[in-house]
Fold each of these.
Amino acid sequence: MNKPALYLVPAPLGDTTPSGVLPADHVEMVRKLDCFIVEEPRTARRYLSALGLDVRSLELEVLNEHTSPAELNGLLEPLRKGRSVGLLSEAGLPAVADPGAELVALAHRGGFQVIPLVGPSSLMLALMASGLNGQKFAFQGYLPVKSGLRDKRIRALERQSAQENQTQIFIETPYRNESLFRALLDCCAPGTRLAVAINLTLPDAFICTRTVGEWKGKEPDFSAAYRKKPCVFLLQT
């Protein structure tokens, strides 16, 4: 760490041990940092403590969806003073479906080194295990909340998948997983393949790929076993 760098520190996808997230040499890198940019200080402190850091001595700055563009520049001040900084997501990889992307772009513009550390990505884990096209895929983020716009978007993604032989990947706020799943069954053709990946890397993880027609009557139990648990959806025609 001779030159100041922005380290992108992955976090667990759920309640798992740090050894299941970061290789040992990466843990040692993180332990050398004393300044972190985090989404939520409380959970960040718990994770960093589990990595072996003394959280009482750490400097934590917050970056979330409420952080203004004007505030971003100030978050890089430690780098300008020669101190390396860790960017920590709430779950998974920083800057992927995460507000950290803008900070990473700013670090590049400032000429600072950006170093990504190895860790879990629910999107890539789901794609790996889905059996769908891993050569050509697109992450679509969140679909519209309103049912009319959501259904229109689902049909558009299904057409795009057919035209480009492309896997479409998207996520939803956990309490809306069931409604999105049922919309997919209603909107997509019976032969369209749909993969559902829930709570990946956790003991109760579930991932299954079926056609839309095959899913009917075999729906995951979103109301009980998988209530409010993170889910990745993937479809391919």
Amino acid sequence: MSRAAQGLRAWLLQRFTALYLALYVVSVLMVFFTGDNWNYAEWHNWISQPLMGIATVLFLLAVLLHAWVGVRDVLIDYIHIAWLRLIFMAGTALMLLVSLLWILRALSLAALLPPG
């Protein structure tokens, strides 16, 4: 596969994740602003719904993929020493993975524990 196809794949991934991020944020803001005064119990019931949980996990994956593609492209463009670029890319990947696990743990605890 040519490098042009890899660039196109990264570009498309960046655009599709950006579109999903925008749609998710707009829909969540609409839910919050059209609803009454939110409290933890209402938020818990809302986030515990299976469809909302799946949409939120997809949102998190889209954020991390979007960040990975952007940071990877910057590192490839501006760090020309291969071993140094590899260290930065590995550090970024590790940070994003730890962030994903931490956020999934927080969401699963919030969804599984009873409110109050």
